[in-house]
Amino acid sequence: MNFFLTLNKNGDVSFSPFQERAKLDANVMSYLSTPLPLAFIQVVQQQSDRREPFSFWHKEPKQKDLKLKILKILKAFGWDSFDFTWKEVSLTSSIHQVRMEEDQEDEGRKVFNRLVLARQLSIGDLHGLARTLRIKDEAIINFAHFNVEQGRAQWVPAVKRLGSGWQCQRCGDKNVEEWPSLYGAAATCRSCESIGSSTSLNVLYRDQRLLLDGPSEVLFRPHWVLTEAQRLASEQVLEFVQAPSLETALLWAACGAGKTEVCFPSAAWALKQGKSVLFAAPRQDVINDILPRLKRDFPDYPFQVLTGTSSVKFKAGGMVLATTHQVLRFWRAFDVIFMDEMDAFPYHGSLALEWGLNHALRQGGKILYLTATPSPKGLKAVQQGKMRLIRLPARHHRKPIPVPSWEGSLHLLDPKGCIDLEVASQIDSLRAQGPVLVFVPKISWVDPWIKCLQRRFPDWCINGSYSADQGRLAKIERLRQGEFDLFVSTTILERGITLPGIQVVVLAADHPVFDERALVQMAGRVGRTRENPVGKAIFLAKHMTPAIRTAIQWIEEQNRLALELGLIEA
To answer: What three-state secondary structure class fits 204?
Structure first.
């Protein structure tokens, strides 16, 4: 998207996305007939900056000098083929301003303004909103630019020059792909391209208004009574959110301890104070698990829910649930962020997603990280006093977390061959206690293991899934409903899902893809409900690895701490 460079009465350089708008604007003296990428117009603005406004009687010669200076700056880019012609604008009446004031009351503009609060949107996003509202692309750009003119929003280059390199302004990534363009060197960001193109020749619309304009009524009706462990953690979370001190805190909880619900009272308090709230997670399965619980406890409150498969991309509301990729569509939007599963892929190790989360936070805002398996980086921040630590070591039913066992397998766990009789016997005995969730380290293992297990247990209902599975959501819903005897999965189900009575088997637990955090999370699917507080998790592997050993030790340590604090029964 290009803009027309305009020269105003006071000598300021500005821009407009529409040539007709430039002609009608009473403040504009002249404009260039050739539209340009915003990044180059900003260079002109910086280099032609005037310390003093032009006086009326010296207007003509100074305007002429400034025009020559602007053309000189543009020619320095080497664009000899461009026809840079100044178009003069007659001194018109304020008809344009009157028309814009009338437009401001237009219903389409009102809807637009309600849906883009605190958003950071690409041109593709804006065009998508135009389709949703059933209006022309030009109208959406018109609405957006009017907000920019009124100081309520900004246009920024999607990828910007930074010294001798580049930086994406949506995700902060500097490792971008450079390529030749009509305007010289250009760049494209690949880190965030899953949510749309981001290039130096295009722009982002950043809305600078607040998601909430003041305190709001919040009907908070929790359908549960906090346990002693949860109450202590919930009080500490609220204290952190209310305190003016540290910006970040870590809630280290046992798997299945109800860490998300512990945050609900703080979310209710924040919304009542007029503070916007974000619940973020790396994976849509976690968001889909949190959503019904929030809807249950916050009846009638408007939510925005954004995942890669969300059918509705634009909705109003001061509370947002989003995957970390979708958080990149917000800018300085949230007063309180609850970041669930901070150590999970794809957030863990992604500087782009971390940058996006931090820039979605308003100045003075708070981020609470929630996890059962903190990363070394998080633990180091706690040790250095940069992050507050809140512990929740016990599950709500006051029973210890089932400690997984390592079962050495002398045979290779080959999904293409016949299943080992010993393994089959272990799975059969687990099924007597509940449905069995079988984790495998590779996507390529899912279908072969499904077929293998179907041959071994022909009377069982067996299925499986992985990240790219088209029927993933429907299968997981059937799994929640207890329709399967056995379900084969990759690590997509290691977090954020509670399955009553589930038993767990991790095949090839010594595979490098299974670190200690993944193993703790997979084992943590067992014994999560009050009705089924016990169960069994088995790590099947040829070798006992450091990851297996550490995972078992972590769970044992949580149980010891909970027992010492009197939060579980021996």
So the answer is: strand
Which residues have a Cβ under 8 Å from the Cβ of 566 and sit 6 or more positions away? Answer: 228
Q: Clarify whether residues 344 and 273 are in a common domain.
A: yes
Pick from 343, 186, 357: nearest CA to 251: 343
3-state SS, residue 211:
coil
381 in the same domain as 265: yes
Token reading at 93: 């009446």
Q: What are phi and psi of 240, to 5 degrees?
A: -65, -45
Which residues, other chains included, contact 106 with Cβ-Cβ below 8 Å and sequence gap of 6+? none
What whole-number distance in Å separates Cα of residue 567 and Cα of residue 570?
Answer: 10
CATH number at residue 327: 3.40.50.300
Distances (CA, A) of 565 to 250, 392, 558: 19, 11, 11
Q: What does the pLDDT look like over 35-62, one tens digit per residue? A: 999 999 999 998 887 544 444 444 444 7
Predicted model pTM: 0.86
User: pLDDT for 524-545, tens place per residue?
Assistant: 999 999 899 999 999 999 899 9
What domain range includes position 259? Answer: 228-392
**Cβ–Cβ < 8 Å for 505, 487:** no
SS3 177: strand
**Among 254, 253, 252, CA closest to 524:** 254
- Is 397 domain-assigned? no
Q: Verify that 151 and 188 share a domain, yes or no.
A: yes
Tallying the residues shown for the chain, one arrives at 570
